[in-house]
Each structure stands twice: as C-alpha cells, then as structure tokens.
Amino acid sequence: MAQFSLKTWTATLCLLSGTALAQTADGPSPITKDDAIAIALAAQRGTVEEAELDQFEGKPAYDVEVVNAAGDEIEFKIDAQTGAILNIWTDDDPSDDPSGADTAVFDTATFLIPGSPGGGWDTATRMIGQVFSSSGVIEDVVFENRDGNNGGVGLTYMVENAANLQNTLMLNTHQIVARSLNGTYSDSFSDLIPVAAPIGGFVAFIVHSESDLQSMADLVNGHADDSFAIGGGSETGGIDHLVSVMAMQAAGIDPTFDYVTFDAPAPAFTALMSGDITAIATDFSRALALAQQGNIRILGVTAGKESTLPAGVQTLHEQGIAMEFVTWNGFFAPPMTGPAQIAEFQAAFSALYETEEWQAAIADKGWIEHRHDSGAFAALLAQQEADVRAALNALEMN
Question: Could you please report the per-residue DSSP string of 206-243?
Fold first, then answer.
C-alpha cells in the first residue's frame, strides 16, 4: 500500500476538500503554519509572501498572503483549529483604477453562499467575487453565508425572501439538481432563475494507482464481485452516486451496485487508499491533481466527445460508453427577478469574461470555462433534470 508523508497527505486533503482537518478522537486538532500555507496554495496558486499566526473575529487564525502569477496579492484568514478559510481579501481596489468606473456594471451586488465559511461553495464564490471586484465589473461585492441542509437553507432563503433581495445572486453546483429531486430540499432549483454558469468540469472515475483495474471496461466488468463498491462525496441519490448509475446504465449493467456515501471527498479517498472501496466518482480537476501526484489512476471522464483532455485520459465515449455529464458552478437569481435585472447580470458576466483578471484567474486556478448564459444554463438544467430523474427511477428513489 502506498505511504504518504504529512506534506503529501495535507496537500491531498486540500485538493479534496479545500481544508486540512487533523482529526483526533475529540475533534479537530490545531493545524500548523505549513498546513495553513498548503490550504491557501490549494485555493490560490502562487508564491507565499507571508504567513503568521494572528486573530480573526476573536479566534486564532493564520494570515497567509499569496501572490499569483498576475502579481495580485491575495490574503487568506485560515482557522488555526479547523483549517477552514474564514475570509479572502485582495489588495486590488477598483476605485484606484481610472478604468474601473467605465467597466462597472453594478455598484454593489450580494453573493449568497449556501454553505459554511471555508467550504467549497464559499471558496468558489469568494474567488469569483474577488475577480468581479478586482476587475472593476462590480465595485463592491458583499458575501452572505446561509448554510444548512446541504445547501437547502440558502435555496429556501432565496425563495422566501425574493421580494427583498436586490442585486443578489446565489452560487450552487450540479448537486442542486439531484437534491431538488431526491427529497433533500423542500424547494427546487426550478424555483430560481438561472443566470450564468461560468465554470465547471466533469466527473472522473478513479482507482488506487496499484489497482488491477485499467479501464472503464474493467470497472464495469468487476461489478459482480462481492467486494465491488463505488464511493463518492455525496449522499445516496446525490450526483456522485447518480453519475455512477448513469455510467453503468449506459454500459448495459444493472445500476443497483453498492454505493458507499461519504460526507466529503477526503474520507472517500482514505477508503480508496485502504482498499475499502473499489473506485470513486469525483471531480475531474481534483482527480487530475491526485493522478499527477501518483496516488490514483483515472479510468474515465464524463466529458463530451469534443473535449480536449490531457494525454492518457480518456472519456467514457472513447471507451464505448455513450454517456457524458457536465459539472458546473452556476449563479441563480431569486424568483420574480425581472428580465431587465437578468439582462444586467448577463452584462456583468459578459464584461467579466473579457477582463485580464478573469483570464488570469482561469489560468491560475485551473478552472474549465463554460460561459453558459441564462438560456444555455437553463437548457443544461433541463437536460440534467431528465438524466437525474431517469437514474433515480432506476433506483426506485423517485
């Protein structure tokens, strides 16, 4: 079995979850300065200028300053106990840029985050908001966390308070489709108005680097083995599970295999390394980083036929399985948002895509651009709703 140094394990946890949690029997133990640096660099590639133990809102937190490839300085406040990213700042201030007034679409906008500080939704929203602000497209971005019920609390807040939410967008991901249909949420993504899906990716099926499985055909053919199990960082009936079901269905296999659910990708990876599960369905960019470390092997990716992937990585289509699934980070407006407001949001994203700051962020963070506008995003949601319903029906969960 592969052995991991503390540095490798910490970096792996950062890649999987955005935080590095050192667990003891009584809960998380304090993280080191090196751990905090690894967490910051997992969120933002660059060079660390300074890292020191400080305070944030009355509790110990590491202050880590990172300079990215564009020369921008990003400051992270990282909880010294849990490793959560508590806040992110940039030294860039659009008011200092004479061109800022010309490019601003909004004076102020609120980005509602349906997760807790330091989580995946939080980090992604703040990173995108930072680029909106530093580019001057939105002069002042306000962040508001409404966490609970795997994003359901934020969704319900948007629905119930729609009349009072001005210039407000909520980020969510492809998980919202499954959770709207499998009973996790009392409300639905269809209650909101899709505005834009700027970035995303695909799902990858991965195995231990020392596994005998070399291809998707090997994975599919091994489903009858008593020890066969696919794991994922989502609940039963969540996207990681359902995408695995879709792949098995497309391969002509009974989709009622053992699926092992984990609270997050990190414990799923631990189970894979220890041999407790056969494979994991996870985010492609995360899988690619782990494969480059030599920890895992990518069997296949749910990218489309025309997608360009790194050498040695194959789509399911290329392996004879006619199935694809796009993951996404998208923004929704509250119900009753008028066409004029949606058009303004669209203009903001269009302006963002043309900025040097956005292009630098894409290169810096390894994001995959989708650039779906409201119409394309709505069409994607409709297709995924149909695909998810079919998978849930196959499991008799709908």
Answer: EEETT-S--SHHHHHHGGGSTT--EEESS-TTSHHHHH
